[in-house]
Amino acid sequence: MLNFQDPALKQIHEKIENNERLNLSDGLKLFQTNDLLGLGKLAALVKERLHGPKVYYVFNQHVNYSNICVNRCKFCAFRRPKGHPEAYALNIEEILTKLKQAGNSIREIHVVGGLHPDLPYQYYLDLVRSLKENFPHAHIKAFTCVEIDHLARISGKDVKEVLSELKQAGLSCLPGGGAEIFAERIRQKLCPEKISGQRWLEIMKIAHELGIPSNATMLYGHLETLEERLEHLLALRNLQDQTKGFLCFIPLPFLPQKSYLKEISPTTGFEDLKMIAVSRLMLDNIPHIKAYWIFLGLKLAQVALHFGADDLHGTVYEEKISEFSGQEGEKALSREEIERVIREAGFQPVERDALYRPV
Ligand code: SF4
């Protein structure tokens, strides 16, 4: 019998016990509660039902092939204009050399970058093909919907054709970035040049229909309201009902330190844990919820495993986006370290591939 300080949680517990879907008003109650531990218990209950004691991680590497981007999203500390002293674009040989430094037991290569004004479409196809040829045991998880839209524009092809060609070159799945917050009101303020939330969902739908699964993300903790967070989650849940293509949801806290929105206070641990728990409870049809330790910090990500998260992302050899954002702490973990963190939290580590199959 679970006890709750907040009677609203008791009612929601009954709905969960009866497998009733939560609505926006339930979501608001979850966000507004101060009974953090009660909220955690609810999310942990659902996580336990889905995954028992298992917590997943992947032996992976990130490739941020270029930080040059034609967009100017205000929350982005990674992007540099062409010609800036810190701007870079890696050629395929340089990427392969970097990846080989970490050995060849990599299971997943996570590739994202800016919208480069000059890199040709062929570069992206060759990159995916070379990664697959050189790391045949790894899944290539590459390009946000924002990049896919960019590739469609520079190639003159439609999204379906671009995704089909990438799949043929070796693409396994999409990482799910670029979703930010779907609310147009916020996108106009934060990232007016970026594709709309509607377009993001449309591209994901096409990918899923082509048999390319994906993750989904949300950037929270900036200008959005709690309702806008929930509308974002419900839009994902709605698409998932149709396609079943989302593997995992990743709530990403906004890191203001080096962005153009420094006046915004960073999220607190309380808020981050609530976000993980609410995601687990609202997204009843998305199998996995990730505690992305690179943004949350490893210690909070470990605690998040008791708030509904069942995935700790991966070992990560090199990652530039959080580094440019001023996030401090660990930059990479060994298998032993990540497994220790999971075991110490009381769970059973399961090494997985990019599609969440145990390896
Ligand atoms: S978030 Fe992505 S699209 Fe926006 S400026 Fe940064 S790299 Fe470019």
Automatic annotation (TrEMBL):
<dbReference type="InterPro" id="IPR045567">
    <property type="entry name" value="CofH/MnqC-like_C"/>
</dbReference>
<protein>
    <recommendedName>
        <fullName>Aminodeoxyfutalosine synthase</fullName>
        <ecNumber>2.5.1.120</ecNumber>
    </recommendedName>
</protein>
<keyword id="KW-0004">4Fe-4S</keyword>
<keyword id="KW-0474">Menaquinone biosynthesis</keyword>
<feature type="binding site">
    <location>
        <position position="69"/>
    </location>
    <ligand>
        <name>[4Fe-4S] cluster</name>
    </ligand>
</feature>
<dbReference type="InterPro" id="IPR058240">
    <property type="entry name" value="rSAM_sf"/>
</dbReference>
<keyword id="KW-0479">Metal-binding</keyword>
<keyword id="KW-0408">Iron</keyword>
<dbReference type="InterPro" id="IPR006638">
    <property type="entry name" value="Elp3/MiaA/NifB-like_rSAM"/>
</dbReference>
<keyword id="KW-0808">Transferase</keyword>
<dbReference type="GO" id="GO:0009234">
    <property type="term" value="P:menaquinone biosynthetic process"/>
</dbReference>
<dbReference type="InterPro" id="IPR020050">
    <property type="entry name" value="FO_synthase_su2"/>
</dbReference>
<keyword id="KW-0411">Iron-sulfur</keyword>
<dbReference type="InterPro" id="IPR022432">
    <property type="entry name" value="MqnE"/>
</dbReference>
<feature type="binding site">
    <location>
        <position position="180"/>
    </location>
    <ligand>
        <name>S-adenosyl-L-methionine</name>
    </ligand>
</feature>
<dbReference type="GO" id="GO:0051539">
    <property type="term" value="F:4 iron, 4 sulfur cluster binding"/>
</dbReference>
<comment type="similarity">
    <text>Belongs to the radical SAM superfamily. MqnE family.</text>
</comment>
<feature type="binding site">
    <location>
        <position position="75"/>
    </location>
    <ligand>
        <name>S-adenosyl-L-methionine</name>
    </ligand>
</feature>
<dbReference type="GO" id="GO:0102573">
    <property type="term" value="F:aminodeoxyfutalosine synthase activity"/>
</dbReference>
<dbReference type="GO" id="GO:0005506">
    <property type="term" value="F:iron ion binding"/>
</dbReference>
<keyword id="KW-0949">S-adenosyl-L-methionine</keyword>
<dbReference type="InterPro" id="IPR034405">
    <property type="entry name" value="F420"/>
</dbReference>
<comment type="pathway">
    <text>Quinol/quinone metabolism; menaquinone biosynthesis.</text>
</comment>
<dbReference type="Pfam" id="PF19288">
    <property type="entry name" value="CofH_C"/>
</dbReference>
<feature type="domain" description="Radical SAM core">
    <location>
        <begin position="55"/>
        <end position="284"/>
    </location>
</feature>
<comment type="function">
    <text>Radical SAM enzyme that catalyzes the addition of the adenosyl radical to the double bond of 3-[(1-carboxyvinyl)oxy]benzoate, leading to aminodeoxyfutalosine (AFL), a key intermediate in the formation of menaquinone (MK, vitamin K2) from chorismate.</text>
</comment>
<dbReference type="Pfam" id="PF04055">
    <property type="entry name" value="Radical_SAM"/>
</dbReference>
<feature type="binding site">
    <location>
        <position position="73"/>
    </location>
    <ligand>
        <name>[4Fe-4S] cluster</name>
    </ligand>
</feature>
<dbReference type="InterPro" id="IPR013785">
    <property type="entry name" value="Aldolase_TIM"/>
</dbReference>
<dbReference type="InterPro" id="IPR007197">
    <property type="entry name" value="rSAM"/>
</dbReference>
<dbReference type="GO" id="GO:0044689">
    <property type="term" value="F:7,8-didemethyl-8-hydroxy-5-deazariboflavin synthase activity"/>
</dbReference>
<feature type="binding site">
    <location>
        <position position="76"/>
    </location>
    <ligand>
        <name>[4Fe-4S] cluster</name>
    </ligand>
</feature>
